[in-house]
Fold this sequence. Notes:
The protein is an alpha+beta fold. It has 2 domains: 5-130, Roll (Mlu1-box Binding Protein, DNA-binding Domain); 170-244, no CATH class. 51% of the residues lie in helices and 13% in strands. It is built from 9 helices and 6 strands; from the N terminus they run βββααβββααααααα. β2 and β3 (24-28) form a beta hairpin.
Amino acid sequence: xxxxxxxxxxxxxxxxxxxxxxxxxxxxxxxxxxxxxxxxxxxxxxxxxxxxxxxxxxxxxxxxxxxxxxxxxxxxxxxxxxxxxxxxxxxxxxxxxxxxxxxxxxxxxxxxxxxxxxxxxxxxxxxxxxxxxxxxxxxxxxxxxxxxxxxxxxxxxxxxxxxxxxxxxxxxxxxxxxxxxxxxxxxxxxxxxxxxxxxxxxxxxxxxxxxxxxxxxxxxxxxxxxxxxxxxxxxxxxxxxxxxx
Length: 245
């Protein structure tokens, strides 16, 4: 069974119980009706909703939860006392089995559709709550980006350390990597033939080592070769090109 998390919010002289769901805040029809000043909050808000049902989007403006899937006690953000927790259960055999909730955006819309004296102040309250939530979401998003940036930097450091260890363990690869970074007097990369001649190996042998080093991320693929592979990858004759090297 699943618990819901609630907290308290102040609207004028009312203390509203806010349900936290999917990272957003929601109010029941009963809570919205009280805030709007209806004499029969649940019934009148439900009537208002049914009348303008086409204006609401499920999942954005409203949602429906199954009360039978909830645990008997609901976690309250403001207190751990079970006596003051917002309790939706137990569900009686005659009582409602589902509960309609309205998001802050849905509350704002209900504030426009209602014609009570408190409707204008309620939609202003809902708008301020929406702005506050958007700022919090922005802060959370920026924090997630910062955490992701740190994770990427950590992975890059680990990759650099592994690269150094691999090259240290294979002097021949270290020589290849060093020569791949060299430039001719004209500023061009050294050709594979020049590197093979300098290292005293056959060009095909060098190609095999280069492909393995590229696969391990020790060196960057030659741009011309990478483009050539992309252009010929669909041709059956070239699909097993690596085996020829």
